[in-house]
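Marked as duplicate of an earlier ticket. Keeping the data here for the record.
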Amino acid sequence: MRTNTQRIYELMSKGAFLSVDSTDLEVKHLYDDVEENFSDYEAYFSELGLRLEAGEGYYYFSRIQEGKSAIEDKLKRFALWVDILDFLKTYDIAFSTGFQFRSTHILERINLDVELRDKARKLFRKQNTNQEIVDKLINELVGMGFAEIINEEDGTYKVTAAFRYAEELVNLIAIYNEEEVQEV
């Protein structure tokens, strides 16, 4: 366990996920190690103020105690991911775990589809071109561990199991809103 602890911390403390279906051999090895030694890792990281969380095919950290500014930052990131998920589902309703895509295809669709272009520009307002927006989107997906490149020659990416995390959060909001509407 100890040989991987530092690397797990380095990846996951930045907000990345470990996914069961990762094509990165190091990430897959770390995922397997956490799965085999979950209670040991859980106890170790709790001493650092981190909660090791498990989802369906992925692991991530959450903070045990968070200040007001940390919660506000988390809410901003969450709002961004709601918008990203909306954009990706508009791009292709099947965009989910196991889905494969190319950045060039996303760029083509943005250039052709007015609704998608509007959503893309709202995602990353600081980016000036559609190419910059797509690059930023891909960097966000890869940085979180939600997607991995599987073919560098043609730029093909695969959506990992960790993407379920974003989908589950958005589904919780949808369910909560439906319950509120029914009570009124």
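See parent ticket for discussion. The CA atoms of residues 90 and 183 lie 30 Å apart.
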